[in-house]
Design a protein that fits this description.
Mean pLDDT: 95
Strand order of the largest sheet: 2-1-6-5
Distance between the termini: 37 Å
Order of helices and strands: EEHEEEEEEH
Structural class: mainly beta
Number of helices: 2
Shape: globular
Oligomer: single chain
Helix content: 10-25%
Largest sheet: 4 strands, mixed
Radius of gyration: 15 Å
Low-confidence stretches: none
Strand content: 35-45%
Length: about 130
């Protein structure tokens, strides 16, 4: 079965989910090369649209994503990647998940404490 990389100019959306808890950790994009590297290495690799290059999640922080399972949707243009997070958090702002803001009464509120200090990990370069 082939993944359809043509619909979004060579990219597919990759929803990253914690294998144990089911929590959505982040959403990224993969091109065919990033997908192939993810499958070959067992670690989530993405295509950065802002930097226009591949990036291995955790290459700066050490917080890698060990792939446990990959699924695709019925149109084969999106991926669900279930992972074991190796590190205290996935978000470059220091949270366990990139989805740490919750809409409550019309306002966005931070819904959890930081899991790590992003300045200590990234040197203030988030």
């Amino acid at each position: 079965m082939q993944i359809d990389f043509d619909k979004m100019d060579g990219l597919v959306t990759a929803v990253i989910q914690d294998y144990s808890s089911g929590r959505v950790l982040m959403v990224g994009f993969m091109n065919e090369e990033a997908f192939r590297k993810t499958v070959e290495t067992g670690f989530a690799t993405f295509f950065s649209r802002s930097r226009n290059k591949l990036w291995l999640k955790g290459e700066s922080s050490g917080h890698r994503l060990l792939v446990k399972e990959i699924s695709t949707d019925c149109d084969r243009d999106a991926l669900l990647v279930r992972v074991e997070a190796q590190g205290p958090g996935v978000c470059h702002e220091g949270y366990q998940s990139c989805f740490f803001r919750r809409l409550e009464n019309g306002e966005w509120n931070i819904s959890e404490p930081r899991a790590y200090d992003p300045d200590a990990v990234y040197g203030g370069k988030q």
